[in-house]
Amino acid sequence: MSQTMLKLRAEISKRRPAFPRNKSGHRMNLRVSSWRKPKGKHTKLRLHKGSRLPIVKDGFRGPAAVRGVHNSGLQMVLVHNMPQLLALKAGEHTAIIADVGQRKKYDLVKKASELNIALVNVKSIQKFLDKIEKDVKVRKHQRSEYVKNRTKKAETKKEEKKVDDKKAEAEKSEANLEIKTEKNVVAKEINPKTKNEKSRSEMLKEQQEKADLSKNIGEKNEPK
User: Fold this and answer.
1) In what order do the strands lie in the sheet with 75-79?
2) How many domains does the chain have?
3) Is residue 40 part of a domain?
4) Per the count of CB atoms within 10 A, which of 13, 97, 121, 200 is most buried?
């Protein structure tokens, strides 16, 4: 029954005409567009007047019994995750892997090959798995090289920073030493005292002592 229906569907699809969009012959941007139902008030395509383009109708469809059935006779099922794949049977269903990530797709394809479930949108399962594994190895290698280079750069930056800090400390100590020497020189220029020189207060004290001594001597020599 299904084989005869599949043959009938193939014959109907051969007889089925193309359904270009209205005014696609006059406008270049409409030639790549899919079918749209004509909704214009005065369009002749909607009113079925004259020899117009074919319009989508129910009579152009294939048999309802084999809709969603693959040419091999298996029911096509769109698979997004692992539970949906595990619910399929090998002799009854064929899977269409949905638009999922590469890692998830790899797991689904590998599990489907283990369960002997045919896949519509994967031509060679082994080639696909080998390609994914190769890509993963390349990405891991690139990642490891990136991490090595990053750590190496960080270490070199740390060493350069240490050298710069040491240079800055040395320059700072030299600057402080120069400032101290300059201060000492300026202090010597302002107060040029030697060890033999006496301060002003000491000199005044000595003069006062001499004056007091001379005064005492004078008082003693005066007649009574």
Assistant:
1) 75-79, 93-97, 118-119
2) 2
3) no
4) 97
Q: Which residue segment(s) compose the domain that 89 sits in?
A: 74-122
Based on the fold, state whether residues 137 and 183 are members of the same structural domain.
yes
Q: What is the pLDDT of residue 26?
A: 87
Angle of helix 102-114 relative to helix 125-190, nearest 10 degrees, comes to: 150
Q: Examine residue 176 and state whether it is found in any structural domain, yes or no.
A: yes
CA of 6: how far to CAs of 57, 178, 223, in Å? 20, 101, 165
Through-space distance between the first and last CA atoms of the chain, rounded to whole angstroms: 170
Tell me which residue of 86, 81, 83, 113 sits closest to 97, measured CA to CA: 81
3-state secondary structure (DSSP) of residue 84 = helix
| pTM (2 d.p.) | 0.57
Q: Are residues 132 and 102 in the same domain?
A: no
Q: If pLDDT is split at 50, 70 and 90, which confidence band does 195 have?
A: very low
Residues 138 and 84 both lie in one domain? no
Mean pLDDT of the chain: 85
Residue 129 sits in the same domain as residue 187:
yes
Handedness of CA 121, 126, 127, 132 (dihedral sign): positive
